[in-house]
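Researcher: Sequence recovery benchmark, item below. Answer with residues only.
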Protein backbone atom coordinates (compact mmCIF):
# COMPACT_ATOMS: atom_id res chain seq x y z
CA UNK A 1 0.00 0.00 0.00
CA UNK A 2 1.11 3.53 -0.67
CA UNK A 3 1.01 4.75 2.88
CA UNK A 4 1.96 3.37 6.23
CA UNK A 5 -0.24 5.13 8.74
CA UNK A 6 0.24 5.47 12.47
CA UNK A 7 -3.14 5.33 14.08
CA UNK A 8 -4.05 6.54 17.53
CA UNK A 9 -7.38 6.01 19.19
CA UNK A 10 -8.07 9.69 18.81
CA UNK A 11 -7.51 9.74 15.08
CA UNK A 12 -10.52 9.47 12.84
CA UNK A 13 -8.91 10.87 9.73
CA UNK A 14 -6.41 9.29 7.43
CA UNK A 15 -3.45 10.91 5.84
CA UNK A 16 -0.74 10.13 3.39
CA UNK A 17 2.06 12.25 2.27
CA UNK A 18 4.18 12.56 -0.73
CA UNK A 19 7.36 14.30 0.08
CA UNK A 20 9.66 16.33 -1.85
CA UNK A 21 13.21 16.98 -0.98
CA UNK A 22 16.40 17.84 -2.73
CA UNK A 23 20.11 17.49 -2.31
CA UNK A 24 22.94 19.91 -1.90
CA UNK A 25 25.61 19.17 -4.47
CA UNK A 26 29.00 18.51 -3.00
CA UNK A 27 27.76 18.06 0.56
CA UNK A 28 29.74 15.46 2.48
CA UNK A 29 28.10 15.78 5.90
CA UNK A 30 27.25 12.59 7.72
CA UNK A 31 23.71 11.23 7.65
CA UNK A 32 23.25 11.43 11.42
CA UNK A 33 20.23 13.42 12.65
CA UNK A 34 20.80 17.05 13.48
CA UNK A 35 21.23 17.61 17.19
CA UNK A 36 19.27 20.83 16.84
CA UNK A 37 16.33 19.23 15.04
CA UNK A 38 14.05 16.78 16.81
CA UNK A 39 10.84 15.02 15.87
CA UNK A 40 9.08 16.62 18.84
CA UNK A 41 10.08 20.12 17.72
CA UNK A 42 9.03 19.42 14.13
CA UNK A 43 5.61 18.20 15.23
CA UNK A 44 5.17 21.18 17.56
CA UNK A 45 5.91 23.60 14.71
CA UNK A 46 3.55 21.74 12.40
CA UNK A 47 0.79 21.98 15.00
CA UNK A 48 1.30 25.72 15.39
CA UNK A 49 1.11 26.31 11.64
CA UNK A 50 -1.83 23.95 11.17
CA UNK A 51 -3.79 25.42 14.08
CA UNK A 52 -3.33 28.93 12.71
CA UNK A 53 -4.66 28.03 9.29
CA UNK A 54 -7.60 26.02 10.63
CA UNK A 55 -8.59 29.03 12.76
CA UNK A 56 -7.68 31.87 10.39
CA UNK A 57 -7.87 30.41 6.88
CA UNK A 58 -10.23 32.50 4.79
CA UNK A 59 -11.57 29.55 2.78
CA UNK A 60 -11.62 25.98 4.00
CA UNK A 61 -14.91 25.02 2.38
CA UNK A 62 -14.71 24.78 -1.40
CA UNK A 63 -13.19 21.74 -3.09
CA UNK A 64 -10.68 23.63 -5.21
CA UNK A 65 -7.06 22.60 -5.71
CA UNK A 66 -5.80 25.09 -3.12
CA UNK A 67 -7.93 23.72 -0.32
CA UNK A 68 -7.20 20.18 -1.48
CA UNK A 69 -3.47 20.87 -1.09
CA UNK A 70 -4.05 22.08 2.44
CA UNK A 71 -6.14 19.06 3.36
CA UNK A 72 -3.57 16.60 1.98
CA UNK A 73 -1.01 18.33 4.21
CA UNK A 74 -3.42 18.43 7.13
CA UNK A 75 -3.94 14.67 6.92
CA UNK A 76 -0.18 14.24 6.79
CA UNK A 77 0.08 16.23 10.01
CA UNK A 78 -2.72 14.24 11.61
CA UNK A 79 -0.94 11.01 10.70
CA UNK A 80 2.48 12.17 11.89
CA UNK A 81 1.15 13.72 15.09
CA UNK A 82 -1.38 11.04 15.98
CA UNK A 83 -4.22 13.38 16.96
CA UNK A 84 -6.99 14.51 14.63
CA UNK A 85 -8.30 18.04 14.37
CA UNK A 86 -11.49 16.76 12.73
CA UNK A 87 -11.63 19.17 9.80
CA UNK A 88 -10.79 17.21 6.67
CA UNK A 89 -13.45 14.50 6.63
CA UNK A 90 -16.20 17.07 7.30
CA UNK A 91 -14.78 19.12 4.39
CA UNK A 92 -14.97 16.07 2.13
CA UNK A 93 -18.48 15.27 3.30
CA UNK A 94 -19.64 18.85 2.77
CA UNK A 95 -18.34 18.62 -0.80
CA UNK A 96 -20.05 15.22 -1.23
CA UNK A 97 -16.71 13.66 -2.22
CA UNK A 98 -17.14 15.32 -5.60
CA UNK A 99 -14.66 16.84 -8.02
CA UNK A 100 -15.11 20.46 -9.12
CA UNK A 101 -16.10 21.43 -12.65
CA UNK A 102 -13.98 23.65 -14.85
CA UNK A 103 -14.82 25.60 -17.98
CA UNK A 104 -11.60 24.33 -19.57
CA UNK A 105 -13.02 20.85 -19.87
CA UNK A 106 -13.95 17.69 -17.96
CA UNK A 107 -10.35 16.48 -17.70
CA UNK A 108 -8.71 19.74 -16.66
CA UNK A 109 -6.04 18.50 -14.20
CA UNK A 110 -6.83 20.89 -11.33
CA UNK A 111 -10.22 19.22 -10.94
CA UNK A 112 -8.57 15.99 -9.80
CA UNK A 113 -6.91 17.54 -6.73
CA UNK A 114 -9.64 16.72 -4.15
CA UNK A 115 -9.37 13.08 -5.20
CA UNK A 116 -6.03 12.81 -3.42
CA UNK A 117 -7.69 13.87 -0.17
CA UNK A 118 -10.44 11.26 -0.60
CA UNK A 119 -7.82 8.59 -1.22
CA UNK A 120 -5.94 9.67 1.89
CA UNK A 121 -9.08 9.19 3.98
CA UNK A 122 -9.41 5.53 3.03
CA UNK A 123 -7.15 3.96 5.67
CA UNK A 124 -9.34 5.37 8.42
CA UNK A 125 -12.64 5.41 6.58
CA UNK A 126 -12.75 2.49 4.13
CA UNK A 127 -16.26 3.55 3.11
CA UNK A 128 -14.98 6.84 1.65
CA UNK A 129 -16.69 7.06 -1.75
CA UNK A 130 -14.42 7.34 -4.78
CA UNK A 131 -17.25 7.26 -7.30
CA UNK A 132 -16.62 10.68 -8.82
CA UNK A 133 -12.86 10.21 -8.98
CA UNK A 134 -13.08 6.76 -10.55
CA UNK A 135 -15.64 7.94 -13.10
CA UNK A 136 -13.52 10.86 -14.24
CA UNK A 137 -10.37 8.77 -14.48
CA UNK A 138 -12.20 6.06 -16.41
CA UNK A 139 -13.56 8.63 -18.85
CA UNK A 140 -10.12 10.17 -19.40
CA UNK A 141 -8.48 6.78 -19.86
CA UNK A 142 -10.97 6.16 -22.68
CA UNK A 143 -10.20 9.61 -24.08
CA UNK A 144 -6.46 8.89 -24.02
CA UNK A 145 -7.21 5.68 -25.88
CA UNK A 146 -8.53 7.87 -28.69
CA UNK A 147 -5.19 9.68 -28.86
CA UNK A 148 -6.07 12.72 -26.74
CA UNK A 149 -3.02 13.22 -24.53
CA UNK A 150 -2.55 17.00 -24.41
CA UNK A 151 -4.48 17.94 -21.25
CA UNK A 152 -1.40 17.82 -19.01
CA UNK A 153 0.13 20.80 -20.79
CA UNK A 154 1.40 22.67 -17.73
CA UNK A 155 3.69 21.33 -15.04
CA UNK A 156 1.24 21.78 -12.13
CA UNK A 157 -0.88 19.09 -13.76
CA UNK A 158 1.58 16.42 -12.69
CA UNK A 159 0.77 16.88 -9.00
CA UNK A 160 -2.91 17.67 -9.54
CA UNK A 161 -3.78 14.48 -11.40
CA UNK A 162 -0.91 12.03 -11.70
CA UNK A 163 -0.93 10.64 -8.13
CA UNK A 164 -4.65 9.87 -8.41
CA UNK A 165 -4.11 7.95 -11.65
CA UNK A 166 -1.28 5.98 -10.04
CA UNK A 167 -3.18 5.12 -6.89
CA UNK A 168 -6.45 4.20 -8.59
CA UNK A 169 -4.54 2.22 -11.21
CA UNK A 170 -2.76 0.20 -8.54
CA UNK A 171 -5.84 -0.14 -6.34
CA UNK A 172 -8.02 -1.36 -9.21
CA UNK A 173 -5.23 -3.37 -10.84
CA UNK A 174 -5.89 -1.38 -14.00
CA UNK A 175 -3.00 -1.49 -16.45
CA UNK A 176 -5.05 0.73 -18.77
CA UNK A 177 -5.10 3.48 -16.13
CA UNK A 178 -1.36 3.29 -15.51
CA UNK A 179 -0.63 3.20 -19.24
CA UNK A 180 -2.79 6.29 -19.79
CA UNK A 181 -0.97 8.05 -16.96
CA UNK A 182 2.36 7.30 -18.62
CA UNK A 183 1.16 8.62 -21.99
CA UNK A 184 -0.06 11.85 -20.39
CA UNK A 185 3.22 12.22 -18.49
CA UNK A 186 5.27 11.55 -21.61
CA UNK A 187 3.43 14.37 -23.38
CA UNK A 188 4.21 16.80 -20.54
CA UNK A 189 7.83 15.72 -20.25
CA UNK A 190 8.83 15.34 -23.89
CA UNK A 191 6.26 16.91 -26.23
CA UNK A 192 4.42 19.93 -24.76
CA UNK A 193 5.72 23.24 -26.04
CA UNK A 194 7.52 21.54 -28.93
CA UNK A 195 10.25 19.80 -26.93
CA UNK A 196 8.63 18.92 -23.64
CA UNK A 197 8.52 20.89 -20.40
CA UNK A 198 11.44 19.07 -18.76
CA UNK A 199 14.79 20.59 -19.61
CA UNK A 200 17.31 17.76 -19.62
CA UNK A 201 20.14 20.29 -19.75
CA UNK A 202 18.95 22.09 -16.63
CA UNK A 203 17.31 19.28 -14.69
CA UNK A 204 14.29 21.51 -14.15
CA UNK A 205 10.80 22.08 -15.59
CA UNK A 206 9.40 25.00 -17.51
CA UNK A 207 5.92 25.83 -16.30
CA UNK A 208 4.26 25.62 -19.74
CA UNK A 209 4.89 26.24 -23.45
CA UNK A 210 5.30 30.01 -22.94
CA UNK A 211 8.54 29.44 -21.03
CA UNK A 212 10.18 26.67 -23.06
CA UNK A 213 13.76 27.60 -24.03
CA UNK A 214 13.86 30.43 -21.48
CA UNK A 215 15.79 30.61 -18.21
CA UNK A 216 12.56 30.97 -16.20
CA UNK A 217 12.15 27.91 -14.02
CA UNK A 218 9.35 28.75 -11.60
CA UNK A 219 10.02 27.35 -8.16
CA UNK A 220 6.51 26.18 -7.31
CA UNK A 221 6.02 24.65 -10.76
CA UNK A 222 9.11 22.56 -10.12
CA UNK A 223 7.79 21.83 -6.64
CA UNK A 224 4.59 20.38 -8.09
CA UNK A 225 6.65 18.15 -10.39
CA UNK A 226 8.96 16.99 -7.62
CA UNK A 227 6.08 16.11 -5.33
CA UNK A 228 4.34 14.25 -8.15
CA UNK A 229 7.38 12.07 -8.77
CA UNK A 230 7.62 11.18 -5.07
CA UNK A 231 3.90 10.45 -4.76
CA UNK A 232 3.76 8.29 -7.86
CA UNK A 233 6.87 6.35 -6.84
CA UNK A 234 5.24 5.79 -3.46
CA UNK A 235 2.13 4.41 -5.14
CA UNK A 236 3.69 2.10 -7.72
CA UNK A 237 4.93 -1.39 -6.84
CA UNK A 238 8.67 -2.01 -7.09
CA UNK A 239 8.13 -4.19 -10.17
CA UNK A 240 6.40 -1.50 -12.22
CA UNK A 241 8.52 -0.73 -15.33
CA UNK A 242 7.48 2.93 -15.30
CA UNK A 243 9.27 3.65 -12.04
CA UNK A 244 12.68 4.10 -13.63
CA UNK A 245 11.84 7.32 -15.46
CA UNK A 246 10.08 8.92 -12.50
CA UNK A 247 13.02 8.10 -10.26
CA UNK A 248 15.49 9.42 -12.85
CA UNK A 249 13.66 12.74 -13.04
CA UNK A 250 13.43 13.09 -9.28
CA UNK A 251 17.13 12.30 -8.85
CA UNK A 252 18.18 14.72 -11.56
CA UNK A 253 16.02 17.48 -10.12
CA UNK A 254 17.45 16.88 -6.65
CA UNK A 255 21.00 17.36 -7.84
CA UNK A 256 20.16 20.62 -9.56
CA UNK A 257 18.09 21.93 -6.68
CA UNK A 258 20.90 21.23 -4.27
CA UNK A 259 23.19 23.36 -6.37
CA UNK A 260 20.88 26.38 -6.36
CA UNK A 261 19.66 26.32 -2.75
CA UNK A 262 20.03 29.68 -1.03
CA UNK A 263 22.35 30.15 1.93
CA UNK A 264 19.31 30.67 4.20
CA UNK A 265 17.84 27.30 3.17
CA UNK A 266 15.12 28.62 0.87
CA UNK A 267 14.93 28.44 -2.91
CA UNK A 268 14.34 31.52 -5.03
CA UNK A 269 11.06 31.98 -6.85
CA UNK A 270 13.00 31.69 -10.13
CA UNK A 271 15.43 28.79 -9.97
CA UNK A 272 17.07 29.99 -13.17
CA UNK A 273 17.76 33.56 -12.06
CA UNK A 274 18.31 34.45 -8.39
CA UNK A 275 17.93 38.16 -9.21
CA UNK A 276 14.40 37.75 -10.58
CA UNK A 277 12.26 38.80 -7.60
CA UNK A 278 14.90 37.64 -5.11
CA UNK A 279 13.96 36.73 -1.58
CA UNK A 280 12.65 33.76 0.39
CA UNK A 281 9.66 31.84 -1.00
CA UNK A 282 8.02 29.17 1.10
CA UNK A 283 5.74 27.14 -1.19
CA UNK A 284 8.43 25.89 -3.54
CA UNK A 285 10.88 25.44 -0.67
CA UNK A 286 8.40 23.31 1.29
CA UNK A 287 7.62 21.18 -1.77
CA UNK A 288 11.30 20.53 -2.45
CA UNK A 289 11.86 19.68 1.21
CA UNK A 290 9.02 17.19 1.02
CA UNK A 291 10.25 15.49 -2.15
CA UNK A 292 13.92 15.18 -1.17
CA UNK A 293 13.05 13.98 2.29
CA UNK A 294 10.74 11.37 0.81
CA UNK A 295 13.63 10.33 -1.43
CA UNK A 296 15.92 9.95 1.57
CA UNK A 297 13.34 8.05 3.60
CA UNK A 298 12.76 5.64 0.73
CA UNK A 299 16.36 4.97 -0.21
CA UNK A 300 16.32 6.87 -3.51
CA UNK A 301 18.48 9.80 -2.43
CA UNK A 302 21.58 9.30 -0.24
CA UNK A 303 21.10 10.67 3.26
CA UNK A 304 24.71 11.73 3.61
CA UNK A 305 24.27 14.11 0.69
CA UNK A 306 20.71 15.29 1.07
CA UNK A 307 19.94 15.31 4.77
CA UNK A 308 21.87 18.57 5.30
CA UNK A 309 19.87 20.14 2.46
CA UNK A 310 16.44 19.39 3.89
CA UNK A 311 17.47 20.21 7.45
CA UNK A 312 18.78 23.55 6.22
CA UNK A 313 15.54 24.20 4.33
CA UNK A 314 13.35 23.32 7.31
CA UNK A 315 15.43 25.42 9.69
CA UNK A 316 15.25 28.34 7.27
CA UNK A 317 11.46 28.13 7.00
CA UNK A 318 11.00 27.80 10.75
CA UNK A 319 13.38 30.67 11.45
CA UNK A 320 12.16 33.11 8.82
CA UNK A 321 8.66 32.13 7.65
CA UNK A 322 6.93 30.74 10.77
CA UNK A 323 5.71 33.58 12.97
CA UNK A 324 4.96 33.25 16.68
CA UNK A 325 1.24 33.22 15.88
CA UNK A 326 1.66 30.23 13.57
CA UNK A 327 1.25 32.28 10.39
CA UNK A 328 3.44 30.81 7.66
CA UNK A 329 4.78 33.71 5.64
CA UNK A 330 6.58 34.28 2.33
CA UNK A 331 4.07 32.13 0.41
CA UNK A 332 3.61 33.23 -3.19
CA UNK A 333 -0.05 33.40 -4.17
CA UNK A 334 -1.80 31.92 -7.19
CA UNK A 335 0.27 32.29 -10.33
CA UNK A 336 2.48 30.69 -12.94
CA UNK A 337 5.64 32.81 -12.97
CA UNK A 338 8.04 34.56 -10.57
CA UNK A 339 6.37 37.95 -10.98
CA UNK A 340 2.91 36.78 -9.90
CA UNK A 341 1.76 37.73 -6.42
CA UNK A 342 4.73 39.97 -5.80
CA UNK A 343 5.89 41.26 -3.48
CA UNK A 344 5.87 38.09 -1.38
CA UNK A 345 5.90 39.28 2.24
CA UNK A 346 6.44 37.83 5.69
CA UNK A 347 2.65 38.00 6.10
CA UNK A 348 1.86 36.25 2.79
CA UNK A 349 0.19 32.95 3.74
CA UNK A 350 -1.77 30.54 1.54
CA UNK A 351 -3.54 27.19 1.81
CA UNK A 352 -1.01 25.75 -0.65
CA UNK A 353 1.95 26.94 1.39
CA UNK A 354 0.54 25.52 4.62
CA UNK A 355 -0.29 22.20 2.99
CA UNK A 356 3.17 21.86 1.46
CA UNK A 357 4.84 22.82 4.75
CA UNK A 358 2.88 20.14 6.62
CA UNK A 359 3.82 17.56 3.99
CA UNK A 360 7.48 18.50 4.36
CA UNK A 361 7.28 18.30 8.12
CA UNK A 362 5.63 14.90 8.10
CA UNK A 363 8.51 13.42 6.14
CA UNK A 364 11.16 15.26 8.12
CA UNK A 365 9.62 14.04 11.38
CA UNK A 366 10.04 10.52 10.08
CA UNK A 367 13.64 11.22 9.09
CA UNK A 368 14.52 12.72 12.48
CA UNK A 369 12.51 10.15 14.43
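Model:
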Amino acid sequence: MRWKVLVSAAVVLAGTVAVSGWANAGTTAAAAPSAALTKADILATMKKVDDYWVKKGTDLKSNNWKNATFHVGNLAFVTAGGVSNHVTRPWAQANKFALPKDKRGPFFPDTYAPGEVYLDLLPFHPDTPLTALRAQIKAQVADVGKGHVTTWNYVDALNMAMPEFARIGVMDKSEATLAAMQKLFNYTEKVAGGKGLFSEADGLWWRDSKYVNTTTFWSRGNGWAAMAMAKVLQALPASDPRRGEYQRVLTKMAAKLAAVQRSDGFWNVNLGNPNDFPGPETTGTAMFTYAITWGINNGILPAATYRPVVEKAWTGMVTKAVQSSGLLGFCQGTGQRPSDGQPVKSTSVTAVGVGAFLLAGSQLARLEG
